[in-house]
Hints:
The chain is α+β, with helices and mostly antiparallel strands. It is about 30% helix and about 25% strand. Strands 1, 2, 3, 4, 5, 6, 7 and 8 form an eight-stranded antiparallel sheet that branches. Strands 9-11-12 form a three-stranded antiparallel sheet. It is globular, with a radius of gyration of 19 Å.
Amino acid sequence: MAELHSDLPNHSDTWEWQAQSQPKQFVYAPQLNQHIHSHWFKPNYWRENNAVMAVRVGRGKTYFIAHEGRTMVLRRYLRGGMVRHFTKDKFLYRGLAQTRVQREIDLLLYMHTHGLNVPKPIAGWCKQSTFIYRNALLLEAIPHAQDFHHLLCQEALPEVLWQNAGRMVKQMHSLGVYHHDLNIHNILVDNEQTVWLIDFDRCERRPHDHKAEQWKSANITRLKRSLDKEQLQMDEYYMDDMQWQAFLNGYKAS
């Protein structure tokens, strides 16, 4: 298996696209990290090395990979909406800087630099044709973390966790970050009771202008809607108005 020479990328490094030996394939990684190759983004490579720990199936597959005592997460970008019926993973190419993977990595680096609890990117991959491209993302896994939804199926969460989740969302909004899909599955807590936010595909930085309160409120509404939806679908779901109020209190107090 390829050696990870310098543990994981130093996120203060300058990131760049590195051309691969395969035609029109590129890896987005720190300048000093020249050892990450395009085969790292192929699940079969990790299967052949018995490194796939688990596969989580949603709209696509997310692979959890063991490497040098660490766990990495591999996710390919897929189309949504009606377009997915015509193409599963092809996007219109407008340059490497406009790829979904670079935009997500750059946003993660920005938030990580400002102290937000989000996954740390390792590298991105792009295979480009004349007018289309495919891309994938490699992240550090958040150790011993579960999403709020999974936990709410088992027991009520302490109000302090809801308050911390509210503070985390407020911190994200204060950085001008709009989350395209803020739902209860995208809020995690680890075994040290630290709250994390994940899944920043199609998310973006937005200005603090007259529209800011509108999109921030829309994020909160989307989160509450996802909670209500899950509560209706589950026989047991340990969520009530007091916990939601604790979230709002944490958000407002930040």
